[in-house]
Amino acid sequence: MCPVTGAGQPPPGPSDYLQTLLRDITSSHLLETIFARSPPDAFNSLWSLYLKDKLSRLSVHPIANFVVAKALERVDEMQLLDACRELKHVWPNVIGETLFHCFLIGVYVQQLLLGQEC
Questions:
Q1: Which of 101, 94, 86, 10 is nearest to 51 (CA)?
Q2: Is the pLDDT of residue 44 over 90?
Q3: Is residue 4 over pLDDT 50?
Q4: What is the mean pLDDT of residues 12-39?
Q5: Which residue from 62, 52, 71 is spatially nearest to 94, judged by alpha carbons?
Q6: Cβ of 101: how many Cβ atoms within 10 Å?
Q7: Contact of 43 with 35, CB cutoff 8 Å
Q8: What is the three-state SS of the chain?
Q9: How far, in Å, CA of 63 to CA of 76, rounded?
Q10: What pTM, to 2 d.p., does this model score?
Q11: What proportion of the chain, given as a percentage, has pLDDT over 90?
Q12: What mean pLDDT comes out for the span 56-65?
């Protein structure tokens, strides 16, 4: 085992701390940057540890979905195919949730313009 490179060690497992950051309104911005700017090998490890096989749950989360979207900008062809397969049954929920929030924002803005309390 090499103490510098870690060669010969088993790959690390997912960190509970990082999984919590996915759902934190402030820390999620840091994770978006990490997913956007990490070297390819690091990105692939992060993808495998924190997003792969968890996309259906994370994509509908009000905060984690932003990290998922940023990561999807960097995926390779195989990761994209896996993501599409995983999200196949979730797309209607994601779209429905987004439309619902747009509707609520529209109602709120209309009430503000009319001078009514929400």
A1: 86
A2: yes
A3: no
A4: 90
A5: 62
A6: 11
A7: yes
A8: CCCCCCCCCCCCCCCHHHHHHCCCCCHHHHHHHHHHHCCHHHHHHHHHHHHCCCHHHHCCCCCHHHHHHHHHCCCCHHHHHHHHHHHCCCHHHHHHHHHHHHHHHHHHHHHHHCCCCC
A9: 23
A10: 0.70
A11: 31
A12: 88
Closest to 32 (Cα-Cα) out of 78, 62, 63:
63
Task: Return the C-alpha torsion angle 99, 105, 111, 116, nearest 10.
Answer: 130
Contact residues for 68 (Cβ-Cβ < 8 A; gap 6+): 51, 55, 58, 59
CB count within 10 Å of CB 24 equals 13
pLDDT of residue 17: 87
What number is the average pLDDT over the span 89-94? Answer: 71
As a residue count, the chain comes to: 118
